[in-house]
Structure formats: structure tokens, C-alpha cells
Amino acid sequence: MKKTLLILLALLMLMNVFGCASREAEPAAEPTPTQAPAVEATAEPAPAEATEPEDALNIAILLEQDDAMINNYSLLAVNEAAPFVDADGNAVSDVAINTVGAKALVDWMLGDEAANLIANFGVEAYGENLFYLREDRPVSSAEIPQATGETGTIRLSTTTSVNDSGLLGSLLPVFEQEYGYTVEVASAGTGKAIAAAKMGNADLILVHSKTQEEDFVAGGFAKVLEGYDAERLTFMYNYFVLVGPKDDPAGCAGAGSVKDAFRLIADGKYRFISRGDLSGTHTKEVSLWPAGLGITTEADSVKNYTDWYTYSNAGMGVCLTMANEMNAYILSDKATFLTFRANGGAIW
Amino acid sequence: MRTALQLAIDLLLSGSAELKDIVSVTLRMTLTSSVAALLLGAPLGVLYASARFPGRKALIVINRTLMGLPPVVCGLICYMLFSGVGPLRHLKLLFTVEGMIVAQVILLTPIVTGSMETYLSGVVGPIRETARGLRLSRGRTFLLTLNESKYQVVSTYLFAFGRAMAEVGAVAMVGGAIAYKTNVMTTAIMMYTNRGDFTLGLALGILLLAISLVVNVLAHLLQRSPA
Prior knowledge:
A: 348 residues; alpha/beta; D-Maltodextrin-Binding Protein, domain 2; 11-stranded mixed beta sheet; 13 helices; 17% strand; globular; B: 227 residues; mainly alpha; MetI-like fold; 80% helix
């Protein structure tokens, strides 16, 4: 194992040496075409400086902090006595759910320590909050038990935004170290995260789609934990943002509200990228279109709009890349967009 | 490309704990599943090519069909079997490396079998003639067949190894790409791409190719040495 890595290392260093050599050779190898860039430089006296120089993306945030754009995140513990069924619809009664572990994580997430971490997350890196705590959130001061062999592994099924933005990466190690649990994070869109929980593959979920959460509760899959008065524990939020081409051909930035902006996009048939994956973002997006269009989360509902509406069935980052390449409008949660922009976003 | 290459080297030198874990999980999964598939698939291939028994042709056709099994379908079936509500839930294989290995073995074994069977059916005739001439026993004929196909075994194994390492659809479903547990290089590349971090994804891709290169160079040296 070590040996393999050593060989690998030597190989890469070798490749690097060759790389450097060819880079140094480049300027000398092409002395003739140096004239061309010089001409360009004098012909265009740096007009590019006028636009935002901060990133290489074609898209930017056009509209944010509209009340219709609030993005609430909730924790739901999976009910070990839920009406689980197998693929054929037969009841399954002995599904293994780690309720003790789920409660420990919920208690910690709603306690003071996590609250401080969430409130300060991203401020240093982005100069602003990525997530905000709700004033009316349930608060816990319950004593958290140390992990035991049986309760030590907690399966958290979650939406991509809290994972891709790095929030869970900054929270969970603190919890794990203090109490000895291992949290296994499976991140997918809200729809998939909930589906996984319904198949007994999660102990708790952290998602952001009110309607889907309420269905989950109504189906008997969630549990009221001791010390709480509801299944849905909505505790933090951030904002969805409307992202689009920097030159904003639809004029969304000047629209009075996000619904007006969506109407402008639909009226002008400007290209729009939809997640199309039943994620929380997708659920939110379909609620913002003018009702007359009849757009729902079903692919069938947009079959007449394929000339401008792209039903992509992909993750947030993939969709942002698509929007960036196609100069399209897109709804994104703010945290993922800021992370995407900070990571470079552009392919080259 | 340049920055990605630089980043790949920086990543290696930095000794990041996450990267170490990703590489070690990848190697563990790849090596175990490819060896298991070889041990299961190669004897089957020899059997299909050299033995004559009823139903042999049907088995060969079934095997060739399974060679085309799309990895996501295999992943989906394993996901449903190992799921909390699935029939094999008591094995607790979902979101584990062992579960990923099972999925990979299902995918790789028919490929190993098919590759051995195709090669051997071409050479089995002459071998049988020789064996008859030398009056070799059944067991010895089998050993002779194996000896004649050792290069094919090596190249089949390398193919299985490469497929196992490059696979993403099945392992993403069964493994769930959980950090420090079941995240392998391909799923990590997907994850970084989804975060808009193309450079880091490409850096991992370069590492993946480099590992494959090392394995192939070693195999090449191994193959040459007896001659």
C-alpha cells in the first residue's frame, strides 16, 4: 500500500518535471505570434475592467431576500414503528432505526453549541451568513448520552445544500468528538433523502421542503421525540436566490418581487434551468411560476415549454454549471451558489 | 489542466486525511472485488469453454447478457435488497464497503467469465488433442488449460481491476458516497463537481489514472519476467 503510493508519487513528480520543462519552453518556441496580443491590447483599452472582476462566472445573484424566497430547514427523526413496506407493498416490522442516536443528534443540533456554530458559519469565508437561526426554533438543553456500541452510528439523510456548503462538515466533527458517535451523511435532494428514510435507510433527516415534510409526517414516518411537541423541528433558514446572466436580458433585477421576475422569464421565454429532481429547491421553484403555466414537479407539466425550460434532474452544482454555460436563469439556495462561486465554478 | 495537475501533486504531498481515506477505500474495494470476481469467474469460464454439459449454451447466452448489465441497475437491485425494508436487510450491507464489493462482483464476474470463455474456446481444441496424445488425466488437462491461459488471466484481471476502479453508478447507489466510509475516487469526483470544484475533481481524476498506470506497469513487468 505504502509502496504503491510511493511509486505513484515519484511518477507524478516526474510528470510535473516534464510539465515545467514544457512550460518554460513555450515562450521561446513561439516568438513570431507575440505581435498579435500587442495589437489587441492597444485596440481595446481594457474594457473588461468595467464589469465585476471578482469572478469568472457568467451568472450572478439578481434577486434575493424576498419573503417568498425564505428557505426553511427542518430536522425529523424517523419513527422506528413507521408503516414501512417493502418493494411489493408488504409490511416490514423489524426495520433497524437508531432512535437514541437520532435524538442525541437532534438535541445537540438544537442546543447552544450548534447554534453558535451555525450563526457564525461562513461569516469569515464569505463575509455574510450562509444560514440563520429561526427565532421560534425549538431549543434543547437535554443531557446528551455518550455513544454506545448499539447507538454509535447515526445515519443522517440530508439535502445537498447543507453538505455541499460545508455546514455539516463544520458541525458534525464537534459533535462526534464530544460524544463518540459516528454520523454517516448521505446527501441527495430532499425528495431522495425522504425516499431513503421511507425505505428505512436513515435515522433522521435534515431537509427543506415543507409540503414533502408534511407528507412524511402524515404518512407516520416521523416521530415526536421526548421533550419536543412536533415531528417537524424547523430551526434554521436561509434564502433562495434568483441567479441569472450578468446582463440580465429579462430585467429580473428590477422586478418588484420574485414572482414578477419569474413572470418576466416565462413571458420572454428566457432559458431557465430547473433542478427537476423533486428537491426542496425544485419544489420551491415550481411554486413561483405564474399559475396559468401549470408547472408542477412532474416532467409532463413542462413538455410544452422545452424551448426555454430545462428539466435537468441533477444536483445544484451541476445545474449551476449548466446555467453558467447556457447563460440561463436558475433558482438556487444561496449557500450552494456562494460555495460554487468560491470554488471557481467556471471549468477553466 | 495545469492547475489541476499542480493541485493533484499538492494534494498528494499534503497527505490530507480525507484523500488518504478515499484512496484506501478505493483500493480496498477495487482489489477485493476484482480478485473475488476473478476467482469466481475464471473457473466458470474454463468450465463453459472446455466441458460439455446440457444447458451450457443457454448459460453462455445468459452470461453474455449479464456482461451488459448496466451498473446503475445492479446498484438499484443491491440498494433494494440491502435496504432497511429489503429482504437482505439483516446483512446490514447498505452504505458499507462490503456492500459495494458485492455489487462490483455481480458486475465483474460475468465479464471475467465471458472473457475467459471466449479466449479458451479458441484454444481448447488443440489442448484437448495434445492431452489425448499424452494420455493426461482430466485434472491434468484442466491444469494444462489453465497454464495455457495464464496471460489471458492476467489481462482479464487487469480489465476487471480497471472496471472496478472506474465504476461509479453502482457504488454511488450502494455505498452512498459517505465521507470517511464509502466515498471512493469516482464518487468523490462527482461530489466535487457538484460543488463547482472542477479542478479538485480533475486532480482526483489524474490520481485515478496514475494508480491505473502503476498497476498496468507492474503487470507488464510481471508478464515479461518469466520470458
